[in-house]
């Protein structure tokens, strides 16, 4: 090659090439294109994160049979594996008659996901009646749809929007949460529901059509989250607060009263879902859960368990059960006098005691902060036995948010998110003429609310497996950080205040004055 040829080979891209790249970037930057593109990317990235180089999930802690029996299936324990704790068992087969107790079956919105995953697994050629890897595929698809909806609400530069979407993927796909995608736990539905509700909420400041679509997505996600398990019922409060802050036009009518009809109807649906979910709780656990709080939470933290036992209406020597859960050897319910004190195992009893003993309530809260900091239960393995990993091994393929949590500390992150929620609440009135920005701020307030109420629910609701029960609070905290970044980087400029405003109320046309004379 001559020097002249070499010079020609190194020529910069022609103006036509630069123009083509600019046009492609401009096309991708359109919300109607960027949203679906981000959703597809999320689906593929999440699938790669869960399935490459081999599928990962979360081992059963013993709760799985209560949920999986709702579909009439039981785990098929792989050769060399174990049913609990150490390894993931993806395959489930049809239960033989008598193997599942209908009275102990756990009802949850997560059962809907399992029913969708069953035919999906057959279509994918997975063995057995149900395979949790199909549930993980469904999780990837639905998470991709939710991120696509979220991405379509973002404004600003293409780079900024892409970074915010990557941050969202880093939270949703973190090792703290991703294992639930292929697990027998109802947390899968709760995590997807919170994500979908967040995505829908970001559209509640857009055009009239965008608000209707956003309300539908938000309500679907909120119902999925609230009905996932009894613990999640407390999410009704922040979800309802957000709806009270979000007017949605009803047809052509956009007056103050008319625009509240659909949000109030959605809030009612979510509230009824919470009531039904409480009724779904199996009868034994209506006693088991408060019993755990009494003996592990209250007596276990009391400086004088004997005196506390008497105050709780128990025999003084029940102090011997302080710190013992329902599932330990020699539990409190094994005592011959248990039938006499069983009716004392209520959350009313717990609440009254905590109000009289703020020191014990504080100790429980500080223990919950430690659980929040730990983030991930250390006793549940991530791999099937065929992966060649030791029993109980846990994957850490994506741990960006987890690293941030460890760097800041659980208590610090909790305070940061609650502070962001406080700032968001103060900003809502200021942004009343900037509906798109206000929608992002309202969504941030909702997530801060979920963080707070789920932290308290996990702290005072059961008193065992506190790290696992903090998962919704930690998840909402991570999403809140992403929403805060979106509010700074991807909200419309203040001079675009009118964008997304509701149409004026429908009015009768003005009458032309009759001529005089």
TrEMBL record:
Residues 497-517 are annotated as: Disordered. The keyword Hydrolase does not apply. The chain crosses the membrane at residues 33-52, 134-154, 163-182, 188-205, 212-229, 261-280, 407-428, 440-460, 472-491. Keywords: Membrane, Transmembrane, Transmembrane helix. The keyword Transmembrane helix applies. This is Glycosyltransferase RgtA/B/C/D-like domain-containing protein.
């Amino acid at each position: 090659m001559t020097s002249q040829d070499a010079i020609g080979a190194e020529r910069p891209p022609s103006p036509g090439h630069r123009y083509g790249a600019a046009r492609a970037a401009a096309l991708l930057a359109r919300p109607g294109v960027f949203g679906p593109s981000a959703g597809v990317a999320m689906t593929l990235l999440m699938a790669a994160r869960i399935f490459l180089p081999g599928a990962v999930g979360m081992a059963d802690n013993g709760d799985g049979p209560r949920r999986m029996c709702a579909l009439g299936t039981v785990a098929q324990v792989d050769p060399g594996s174990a049913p609990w704790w150490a390894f993931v068992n993806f395959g489930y087969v049809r239960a033989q008659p008598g193997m599942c107790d209908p009275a102990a079956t756990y009802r949850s919105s997560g059962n809907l996901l399992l029913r969708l995953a069953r035919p999906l697994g057959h279509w994918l050629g997975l063995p057995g009646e149900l395979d949790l890897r199909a549930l993980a595929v469904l999780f990837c698809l639905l998470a991709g749809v939710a991120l696509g909806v979220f991405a379509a609400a973002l404004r600003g530069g293409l780079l900024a929007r892409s970074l915010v979407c990557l941050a969202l993927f880093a939270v949703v796909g973190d090792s703290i949460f991703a294992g639930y995608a292929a697990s027998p736990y109802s947390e899968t539905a709760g995590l997807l529901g919170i994500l979908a509700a967040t995505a829908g909420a970001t559209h509640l400041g857009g055009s009239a059509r965008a608000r209707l679509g956003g309300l539908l997505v938000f309500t679907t996600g909120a119902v999925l989250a609230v009905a996932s398990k009894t613990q999640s019922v407390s999410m009704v409060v922040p979800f309802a607060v957000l709806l009270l802050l979000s007017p949605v036009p009803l047809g052509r009518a956009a007056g103050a009263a008319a625009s509240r009809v659909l949000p109030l109807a959605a809030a009612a649906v979510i509230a009824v879902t919470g009531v039904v979910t409480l009724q779904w709780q199996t009868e034994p656990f209506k006693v088991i859960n408060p019993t755990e709080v009494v003996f592990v939470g209250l007596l276990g933290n009391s400086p004088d368990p004997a005196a506390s036992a008497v105050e709780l209406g128990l025999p003084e020597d029940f102090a011997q059960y302080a710190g013992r859960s329902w599932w330990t050897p020699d539990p409190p319910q094994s005592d011959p006098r248990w039938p006499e004190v069983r009716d004392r195992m209520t959350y009313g009893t717990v609440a009254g005691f905590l109000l009289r003993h703020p020191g014990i309530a504080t100790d429980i809260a500080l223990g919950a902060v430690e659980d929040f900091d730990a983030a991930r239960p250390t006793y549940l393995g991530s791999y099937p036995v065929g992966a060649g990993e030791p029993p109980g091994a846990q994957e850490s393929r994506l741990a960006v948010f987890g690293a941030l949590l460890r760097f800041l500390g659980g208590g610090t992150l909790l305070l940061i998110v609650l502070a962001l929620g406080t700032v968001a609440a103060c900003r809502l009135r200021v942004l009343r003429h900037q509906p798109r920005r206000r929608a992002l701020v309202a969504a941030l307030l909702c997530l801060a609310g979920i963080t707070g109420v789920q932290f308290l629910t996990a702290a005072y609701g059961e008193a065992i497996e506190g790290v696992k029960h903090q998962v919704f609070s930690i998840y909402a905290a991570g999403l809140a950080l992403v929403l805060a970044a979106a509010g700074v980087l991807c909200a419309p400029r203040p001079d675009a205040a009118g964008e997304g405003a509701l149409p004026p109320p429908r009015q009768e046309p003005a009458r032309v004055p009759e001529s005089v004379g």
